[in-house]
Design goal:
Radius of gyration: 21 Å
Distance between the termini: 26 Å
Order of helices and strands: HHHHHEEEEEEEEHHHHHH
Largest sheet: 8 strands, mixed
Structural class: alpha+beta
Strand content: 5-15%
Number of helices: 11
Number of strands: 8
């Protein structure tokens, strides 16, 4: 996988205001569009991190990059593409701005989820363009959805919802009740036009600061039946009309992989920056890598990052090609979580292996914060994925949908 490094004012809308319109027509996706996005994102990354929002030009370029359309079914003009290609594209973009890459990966993932909508719902999302930007809050479910004669009434609060200020639609998961208000065990996902939701600016994270995962409120929003689907169907990865292999994959088969792609690219960038420092002569005139401690840090950190990349590449290949079983899902969960821990350890070693702790606003420090924020995500916690893997090895996992996501989160 290539690790080429390219060289090179949006106010958050007030609660309840209209969301940004789509640009028409979008540029054709491809390598050039992704490169343009990367260069714009890199130039704006320090400001985006400080002010906790992506620039409008970056958001528009991200829409044209092909990532929102990555998993959109081909009949709607989308890429209907692979997990392997997504890993390559997101990790490359993360070398320039991890927050932009994170949003791009989620736009792709949420397009995959929308393939579970009925035909009329898919048409509502993609009839004008396959590059529709979609945010989501899937797990844990929140709020309530009350069934009615002509659809559902959705109310509640969800957080965090990454990039919600830059999307046209939001997917929200909620337990359903009958018309009398009695709660059942079913949970549904509802596609809601972003302009019908109230956004509360609440994001203030250590890393991935420009992802702007604010809080969303739905106040008795009507959702017609064609804009909802059963969450269990998506988690299990059930096949259906017009769904390719990637659409029918269980949510946990590649959820961790798609998250970890951002950490992988950010770690590669951190290694590049640190290597530049290590191979530059110090004030004494000696190249720093002549010191055994520096040479050891370079060797071990680079090996960890490369090894994590191999785990992720293998997991993506399995997700694209191998028969889906409970064991395969658990193995991919394990590899993504272990890769995330390896990347966090490697970047932490780099930051400790020099004077970089004294540079609070430097790019290496930003990559360090972003990698650790990704690794802290519930889907990438080693303990939870280890339990699922041990259960699968022990024969407790029967079928792709039987291994549950780590409590408290899922791909958003």
């Amino acid at each position: 996988m290539s690790s080429t490094v390219l060289r090179a004012d949006d106010g958050v809308p007030a609660a309840g205001t209209a969301r940004p319109p789509l640009s028409h027509p979008p540029a054709p996706p491809g390598a050039a569009a992704l490169r343009d996005t990367a260069l714009l994102a890199r130039a704006d990354a320090p400001r985006a991190d400080a002010e906790q929002r992506l620039a409008p030009a970056t958001v528009e370029a991200l829409g044209r990059s092909g990532l929102p359309a990555h998993f959109v079914p081909a009949r709607w003009g989308g890429g209907d593409a692979t997990f392997t290609r997504l890993l390559e594209e997101v990790s490359l973009l993360a070398e320039h701005c991890p927050s932009t890459a994170w949003c791009g990966a989620l736009f792709a993932a949420h397009g995959r989820f929308c393939a579970y909508l009925p035909e009329a719902g898919q048409r509502a999302i993609w009839r004008d363009t396959p590059h529709t930007r979609i945010a989501a809050a899937i797990a844990p479910p929140a709020g309530t959805a009350r069934a009615g004669a002509d659809g559902w009434t959705l109310s509640g609060t969800w957080r965090p919802v990454s990039a919600v200020s830059h999307v046209q639609w939001v997917l929200l998961a909620a337990p359903v009740t009958d018309p009398a208000g009695a709660a059942g065990s079913a949970v549904r996902v509802f596609a809601v036009p972003a302009g019908r939701l109230v956004v509360e600016e609440s994001w203030d994270a250590v890393g991935l600061r420009a992802t702007a995962g604010h809080t969303v409120h739905a106040r008795a929003v009507h959702v017609p039946a064609h804009l909802t689907f059963d969450l269990a169907e998506m988690l299990a990865g059930r096949a259906g009309p017009g769904r390719s292999r990637t659409h029918a994959a269980p949510a946990q088969l590649a959820g961790g992989l798609m998250f970890c792609a951002t950490a992988y690219g950010a770690a590669r960038r951190a290694l590049h920056l640190w290597t530049q420092w290590a191979t530059t002569p110090a004030k004494t005139g000696a190249v720093r890598t002549t010191a055994p401690a520096v040479a050891t840090t370079l060797a071990t950190a680079s090996a960890r990052i490369e090894a994590a990349g191999l785990l992720l590449e293998r997991a993506a290949h399995r997700a694209d090609t191998e028969p889906v079983t409970g064991s395969l899902v658990a193995t991919n969960q394990r590899d993504a979580a272990v890769a995330a821990q390896m990347l966090a350890d490697a970047v932490g070693e780099l930051v400790r292996g020099g004077s970089h702790m004294l540079d609070a606003r430097g790019e290496l420090q930003r990559m360090w914060r972003d990698v650790h924020t990704v690794a802290a995500h519930a889907v990438l916690r080693v303990e939870a994925t280890a339990t699922a893997f041990a259960a699968a090895v022990g024969g407790a996992g029967h079928g792709a949908g039987s291994l549950r996501a780590p409590a408290g989160d899922a791909p958003r």
